[in-house]
Specification:
With about 450 residues, the chain is an alpha+beta fold. The protein has helices spanning about 20-30, 55-70, 115-130, 155-160, 165-170, 180-185, 215-220, 255-275, 310-330, 350-365, 380, 395-400, 410-430; strands spanning about 1-5, 35-40, 45, 75, 80-85, 95-100, 140, 205-210, 220-230, 230-240, 245, 280, 285-290, 295, 300-310, 335-345, 345-350, 370-375, 390-395. A hairpin with a 6-residue loop joins strand 2 (about 35-40) and strand 3. The structure holds glyoxylic acid (GLV) and manganese (II) ion (2 copies).
Length: about 450
């Protein structure tokens, strides 16, 4: 998945200014206090800012306050995406958009998504401090429900903004309690009035933590992200028969818990078979009902998350996973039903934008590599409508993420955001951008 890149300074301009790394770190720390929770399994304080909850709303308000303090003009669209514009010298030109998300998984850390948003804010603050204007406007954005763990589908806000998911479909999505996206947007005050699709940037950039071990393991300072692998999510229900644990002979049982466990093992066997390339499979939710020590589970609700860098291998894996669900149900006398809640193909990023990131990292003498993203990102949605690419920064503890141990150092964050700064400046001042970057 990676290609080596050594620090060299070939044909890239010397960086003229750098961000305030301490100010960036302080902003990240301050936002992490919103939605902070005590994590039982690690004993650490994590971040719980699940999309469209009160904590998410408080985080949104804090970031908007900072955006407005930086003089940005803030607008909210009909799916709750927040856009904040710094004017350019030529208002007729399409903006360079810098974005990510501030919602988190229920057991999150301080950096996932936040680095891209507050890194973008730090870029704006740095330009302001030094009185630097750009030809193109710069739009700093954060998008609704990137994580997808509440309403069942990831990258929701950016997918709606760029046309993959219709607004009505997004509004109608429900969480486990039956509450809709539209009702929650309205309740937290983020059902905005900007029409969907009103923004079509000249280019889209996102700085994000890698969330994996590749960069840190090889001693790289930053990653030039080549794209995002394919993702498929399923919600699966196993329906058997609930019964007394002590009195029901094995031959009488229709144990939904056993079927779910067997599927989980079979998924790992599919992965280990090597027949589906670099397939990853995760059963992240396994909920037995009634969930009582002495009751055979009559029903299990579960999820399956599949990832694959190869679209053909992903299609084959999905076909075979569905077949194994059907076969499992038949063999175990359990009814197995499923629903695909999210599906994105492998998304390649723009070559010209990647080259700009590479050149900026080289100019700063940073060790870098190209790598495909294992996680989903808003950039993969914006890539549909504009040349897009991402900068990754390494994290401590093998890049652990979706966990309170998630941590990137001040220097690691600063390296990525300095590269972001250089590339934003460069693209916001240049003319057409390579193969698909013409006006507007
Ligand atoms: C987003 O965080 C994902 O699940 O990849
Ligand atoms: Mn993220
Ligand atoms: Mn995430």
């Amino acid at each position: 998945m990676t290609a080596e890149g050594s620090p060299d300074r070939a044909d890239a301009p010397a960086p003229g200014l750098s961000i305030d790394a301490a100010r960036l770190e302080e902003s990240i720390r301050a936002l992490a206090t919103i939605g902070a929770y005590e994590d039982e399994s690690t004993g650490l304080v994590g971040v719980r800012r699940v999309a469209l909850t009160d904590e998410d709303a408080a985080g949104r308000r804090q970031v908007i306050e900072w955006m407005e303090a930086a003089g940005l003009r803030v607008a909210v669209d009909a799916i709750g995406n927040v856009f904040a514009e710094r004017p350019g010298l030529d208002p007729s030109l399409a903006p360079v958009m810098v974005g990510s998300h501030i919602d988190s998984v229920p057991t999150g850390g301080a950096y996932d998504g936040v680095l891209g948003v507050l890194g973008g804010l730090e870029v704006v603050r740095t330009l302001d401090d030094r009185g630097v204007a750009t030809r193109r406007p710069i739009v700093l954005a954060f998008f609704t429900d990137e994580e997808g763990c509440r309403f069942g589908t990831d990258m929701l806000g950016s997918a709606v903004a760029t046309g993959r998911i219709p607004l009505d479909e997004a509004y109608a999505l429900r969480d486990a309690a039956g509450t809709t996206v539209r009702d929650e947007l309205s309740r937290i005050g983020f059902l905005g009035d900007e029409p969907i699709g009103a923004r079509r940037p000249h280019a889209y950039l996102e700085c994000h933590i890698e969330q994996g071990p590749v960069l840190g393991g090889a001693g790289h300072d930053v990653g030039v992200v080549t794209g995002v692998q394919a993702i498929a999510w399923y919600e699966v229900t196993f329906r058997g028969r609930s019964a007394h644990a002590g009195t029901t002979p094995t031959s009488y049982r229709r144990d939904a818990g056993l079927s779910a466990a067997r599927v989980n093992v079979a998924l790992r066997e599919l992965v280990d078979s090597g027949r589906y390339g670099e397939l990853r499979a995760t059963m992240g939710v396994v909920r037995p009902h009634p969930g009582v020590v002495n009751v055979v589970p009559g029903r299990v609700t579960a999820t399956i998350d599949l990832r694959n860098p190869d679209d053909g291998a992903m299609e084959a894996a999905e076909r075979d996973v569905r077949a194994l669900l059907a076969a499992r149900g038949e063999e175990d006398g359990v009814e197995v039903t499923w629903r695909r809640t999210a599906r994105t193909a492998m998304v390649p990023f723009d070559g010209a934008v990647m080259d700009r990131i590479d050149a900026a990292a080289a100019a700063r003498g940073l060790r870098r590599t190209r790598l495909l993203s294992g996680a989903g990102h808003d950039a993969q949605e914006w890539a549909r409508v504009a040349p897009a690419a991402m900068v990754f920064v390494p994290g401590e503890h093998d890049g652990i993420s979706h966990n309170p141990r998630e941590h990137s150092t001040r220097e690691q964050c600063a390296n990525g955001v300095n590269v972001l700064l250089d590339v934003v400046r460069r693209i916001a001042d240049d003319g057409p951008l390579g193969r698909d970057g013409g006006e507007p």
